[in-house]
């Protein structure tokens, strides 16, 4: 279970970083 939560946290941080990069590209 702890591994799943860790993996979920990594995925969410990756998505946030990707989203921020897309916004930066548009500016």
Summarize the structure.
The chain is mainly α and 27 residues long.
Write out key terms for the chains shown:
single chain, 27 residues, mainly alpha, 1 helix, 93% helix, 0% strand, rod-shaped
What does this entry look like structurally?
With 27 residues, the chain is mainly α. It has one helix and no strands. It has one domain. It has one helix spanning 2-26. The protein starts with a helix and ends with a helix.
Blueprint (SSEs and pairs):
Elements: H1 2-26
Order of helices and strands: H
Q: Roughly what fraction of the amino acids lie in strands?
A: under 5%
Q: What low-confidence regions span 5 or more consecutive residues with pLDDT below 50?
A: none
For the sheet with most strands, the description reads: none
| Strand tally | 0
Number of domains: 1
Shape designation: rod-shaped
């Amino acid at each position: 279970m702890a591994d799943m939560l860790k993996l979920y946290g990594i995925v969410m941080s990756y998505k946030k970083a990707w989203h921020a990069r897309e916004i930066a590209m548009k500016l």
